[in-house]
Amino acid sequence: MAEIFVLENQQYHLKIHSLGAELIHFSKREKENLLWEKTTAHWNRVAPLLFPIVGKLKDNAYSLQEDGFALGQHGFLRDQEFTLLEQNKHSLTLTFSSDSATKKVYPFDFTFEICYAFDSSGLRIEATIKNRSESKMYFSYGGHPAFHLEEKLENYFLRLEKDFVAERQLIENGLYSGATEKMSISGDLQLNDDLFHADALVFKQPPFQTIELLHNTKGSILKMTCESWTAIGIWTKAGAPFLCLEPWWGWADSTDSTGDLTQKAGIRVLESNVEETLVYRIEPAI
User: Fold this and answer.
1) Interior angle at CA 45, CA 157 and CA 192, nearest 5
2) Residue 5 near residue 16 (C-beta atoms within 8 A)
3) What is the CA radius of gyration of the chain?
4) CA separation for the pair 174, 154 (Å, rounded)
């Protein structure tokens, strides 16, 4: 049965749904939820966990050692029921392990643990993926938190820590088409609907570790920091009252992908009985 877990201290208040271990509320005390509260029909998620793939596979399928498997966009973890592993006054850890159903679409034995922990300046989100198979395991992982926007998108901008020029890879039906669009960013990126004309804005191997969401006149709302992401996705829908800042370790297929999971661009590899921990942080403005 689904549960809502609560973690709070003198500074912060957190709620996590057992279905998908999804973060559904994060606020500073006496302040509003930073996350979108899913009160409209724009989208049916708040902050899903993406695993064992990020984005879409070509034909929603992949191959592994001559066997074929079907797997939908962003994988299956967001629809699995997690159990509580540990909770104290500073952190909460939920876990999910592979079962007969997951092995039909992803033939690996694994355990996935997600820890939500408070520190002095915000929330640390720590995923630990353990390969319990006798062979190498291939996977991607990502976060997908949607942050609440009180006003129109054009009233906000992103601060990306440094100036850079990027080749935005354009998306067609959820896959990278091979077409690119050059973007020159001078520290700040003004938000508007046109930015999302080709779906999400994705930076692979981003040359920054911090991204900050700010209002044009009211100042900073939050910062997201990650030292190890291999991509970041920025996404919304036209007219939707949210913006997603998505730390990724992996990304979608391209239109010319072979489908071989072992050769998938951006894929991560874990040896047998090895684990990896991937971390990002959300820091609310003062």
Assistant:
1) 20
2) yes
3) 19
4) 25
Q: What is the dihedral sign for C-alpha 144, 230, 126, 113?
A: positive
Structure tokens at 124: 């640390």
d(CA 248, CA 139): 12
As a whole number of angstroms, the distance between CA 103 and CA 60 comes to 16
> In whole angstroms, what is the distance from residue 101 CA to residue 110 CA?
13
pLDDT tens for residues 208-252?
Answer: 999 999 999 999 999 999 999 999 999 999 889 999 999 999 999
Cβ(282)–Cβ(145) below 8 Å? yes
Task: Please name each of the domains of the chain with its CATH number.
Answer: 4-146+257-284 (2.70.98.10), 149-249 (no CATH)
Q: Cα separation of 226 and 207, whole Å?
A: 11
Instruction: State the pTM of this model.
Output: 0.96
The pair of three-digit structure tokens given for residue 10, joined into one six-digit string: 């003198």
CB 233 within 8 A of CB 201: yes
pLDDT tens-digit series, residues 3-60: 999 999 999 999 999 999 999 999 998 789 999 988 888 999 999 999 999 999 999 9
